Protein 1
Amino acid sequence: MKLVFLGPPGAGKGTQAAAAAEKFGLRHASTGDIFRQAAAEGSQLGVAVKDYLDAGRLVPDELTSRVVEQMVVSRTEDYILDGYPRTLQQGRDLDEMLRRRGEHLDAALYYRLDDREAVRRLTGRLVCTRCGVNYHRQFVPPRADGVCDKCGGGLSVRSDSSEEVVRERLAEYHGKTEPLVAFYEEQGLLEQVDASAGPEEVTRRTEAVLARIAAD
Ligand SMILES: [Zn+2]
């Protein structure tokens, strides 16, 4: 199976991709890992990617697509792409590189989660200022409010967990990535998974969808 996993930040698609890859014997190809691997291998593309990563800048669509082609699509194994495509242009690039190889995607799994729930999940993250242990106000709360269970240090909101940062990420997702949902729906490849349940339940739903696709 060749699969794409889509969804907003907070939907847990990375966790689901890792579990599904293990269960179905697929490669879990997350964009972050692919970039790091390409940079470590020191190929021409990898060096170009490293320049962007080191500068903390977004890797452009064209370069991203070339790296994904070199590191994933051109290899023979089956895979789950996690974090790619993240724009409509990347979606078209992926179609084109598959077409050149006489291949096609089997499905795009779309992890649906509304903004309210995404914000609730992403903004509650706390970190101990002394020992670095992570908590979540709702899902992994400390025993005493604002105090680390392990060392008694003070807890603060993680820098990537402020409401402003989370809202920015969601706006970026809606603007750039969400159009891929309609793109895959038109191709008859979209499989929707309700991601509002807990992770074990979402894993069961994912496995049911993939078992059906694998049997086709
Ligand atoms: Zn601590």
Protein 2
Amino acid sequence: MPETKTKPGLNLARIDELITEGREQKWALIPLLQKIQEEFGYIPPEVVQPIARALGLFPAQVQGVITFYAQLYTKPQGRKVVRVCRGTACHVRGGKTILKLVKQHLGLEEGETTPDYEYTLETVACIGVCALAPNIVIGTTTYGHMNPKKVAQLFGEGKGAE
Ligand code: FES
């Protein structure tokens, strides 16, 4: 699925404000990146140069940190991030089928976002509630004991969790 590098309507002026605020308050690089992600849902590629200039770093250093931390997203995320567990407990209880069905319903592969930025699909190693396997998480809500019917209820025509 095609993915734009920058989410349409990105407020570049607001990014400049955040960078200025970060420089004035002497924020370290990671808190500044977290703040940008909090507001925009990801780290737009346009911020690398201005952040490097503001904090007296090389752009490669800024990019290196963004790439290193899995919690920092380099692509726009959907309003609802769907995480399907692929841990062992979920796997043996049908997690693979659940992932396949979620992919079909959303028309996404792992790491992709719908063109309307409604959903992003990810997989995770274990979300820590193995007793409820198989599990998926949408946003901050965990859905346990998943089965094909529940997937259809969550993602079927005209439906959307949260
Ligand atoms: S393996 Fe899925 S929650 Fe632990």
